[in-house]
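Supplementary Methods, section 5.1.

A reviewer requested that the exact input to the structure prediction be made available. We therefore reproduce it here, unchanged from the version used in the analyses.
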Amino acid sequence: MVLKNLCDYLDREQIRYTVISHSPAFTAQEIAAASHISGRNLAKTVMVYIDGELAMAVLPASLHVDVEVLGELSGAVHIEMAHEADFRDCFPGCETGAMPPFGNLFGLPVYVARELADDEFIAFNAGSHTELIQMHYHDFERLVQPRVFDFSSLV
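The structure derived from this sequence is encoded token-by-token as follows.
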């Protein structure tokens, strides 16, 4: 259902996209391998609390969120990673951990790692552990209007 709703939204906004089906995969690296997309181009959504408010940090699958750096760049007083139990019910119809990075559709701020913003395309979970959407990054940015920062690391 999430995939259909997301596709309907993209169609209304006249966005070109591709739906990619793959075998079930749960970690960002597994999804990249199953879908034959570079971990650099596959966006994973990591949920964080920024000053007590839930937010999405979106970055390449091959990288990790540097929480301290994200906190500094966002001007937060307190930042911490969210646990799945904290946000499981925030994304109706989505499998846990497979929510698309469209915080605008869920009333959440979105922070994107510069590495993704520098790419032509972005691919991301479409609400399940078997489907992705791939689209031009500039279209994603126009719809979501994320804040773009250098907050990812290889650690």
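The first helix runs from residue 2 to 12. These observations are discussed further in the main text.
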